[in-house]
Amino acid sequence: MAIELEMKKDNNHKTFALTRRSGINLLIAFLVSVVAIVVIVLFTISDKTLIAIQQVKVIYLIIAFLLTILSYFLSGLTFSILASALHKRLSVWQSFEVFSGANFIGLTAPFHIANMPVQALFLNNFGISYADATAIVTTHAVLSAWFFAVVTPFIFIFNIPLFGTPLSVAFFTALIVIIVSTALFILFILRPNFFEKAVTVIINSRLLKRFINPKELQRFSADTVEYMKNSNLSLKKLFKASPFSLLLAFLSQILAWIAIIATAPIILIGLNWFDSLLEIFFRVMILNFFLSFSPIPGGSGIAEVGIFAATLDLIPTFLIGPLVLLWRFTTFYLIYGVSAFFFVWLINMRAKMKKKKKIKS
């Protein structure tokens, strides 16, 4: 339990530090995104672009935003299903709060590195231990990645001409990431000692001892190993609990992915374009997965250029600017406002919980 107590002390400080950092990251994301959109619009704008904007069907833009909300809801639902498998109570609404609130930081952190730790932190708000929370968010991430592997065969079934396009590199990179991450995930469940020894060796290395007190390193090493053991037990419990729950959680992730990916084709329908929508769906699928590993906050720049490259040979040039702008607006900036609301809500909840504990003590 030592690691849990230590994490409770450290996480509040880290969360507020991340909040300040997320403000900087958001500014970077916004500036890079604006520059990318402006450049794309300048290279693709024409008289037909203005006509297309005037004739846009707003209802489809609303549907695209609602699909983004639905995607968040379904991703959050996965938390609720996995928590139930561990015999923990987490309502569907609470799981939606957790997923949305964590994305306030996760969306703007490079490589989304802050997403899972903050998800675990917010799950702890609802009485779930850090070990169980880690098992839940890790399984959530792996199930999310598996969607890509499951859908990949359909690229060949529908004979989608993906190879030879700029997204072919992203496609193979994503496959490699999925294979490696899945292998490590399974190895951690089956052979936790391997990771415990590796972490112990790294923490107690001569390099770290030059900068950090050896006693502090030893304590941190012991706490980390204890935390890893608890997380491993939670993962084993989760996978033994109910195969049906895992299948249901995976189905929830599949539907969440489909909802967010479908936003681009829906926006194109709103722009009165109906050709090659299935191919665009698969290309945007690869782009969305690849954005999870973007070093630039929010995937800005990569997202805009990516959707440009993914649709350049499939839709008229004059529609690319409006598509990039509307797609980014509905799937990033609007939803970021929703995430900000829930982030503040959950942080305030955590502060109130802390005050109550102080009063009781």
Describe this structure in words.
The protein is built from 15 helices and no strands. Residues 1-11 have low confidence and may be disordered. The chain has helices at residues 2-44, 47-54, 58-85, 92-106, 115-125, 130-157, 167-190, 192-203, 206-209, 214-241, 243-261, 263-270, 277-291, 302-311, 317-360.
The helix content, as a percent range, equals over 70%
Structural class: mainly alpha
Percent in strands: under 5%
Which value, in Å, is the CA radius of gyration?
22 Å
In DSSP terms, counting alpha (H) and pi (I) runs of 4 or more, how many helices? Answer: 15
Mean pLDDT: 85
Number of domains: 1
Which spans of ≥5 residues are poorly predicted at pLDDT below 50? 1-11
Shape: globular
Head-to-tail CA distance between termini? 19 Å
Biggest sheet statistics: none
Count of extended strands: 0
Order of helices and strands: HHHHHHHHHHHHHHH
Task: Using brief descriptors, characterize the structure shown.
mainly alpha; 361 residues; 0% strand
Strand and helix layout:
Elements: H1 2-44, H2 47-54, H3 58-85, H4 92-106, H5 115-125, H6 130-157, H7 167-190, H8 192-203, H9 206-209, H10 214-241, H11 243-261, H12 263-270, H13 277-291, H14 302-311, H15 317-360
Write a short abstract of this structure.
The protein has about 350 residues and is mainly α.
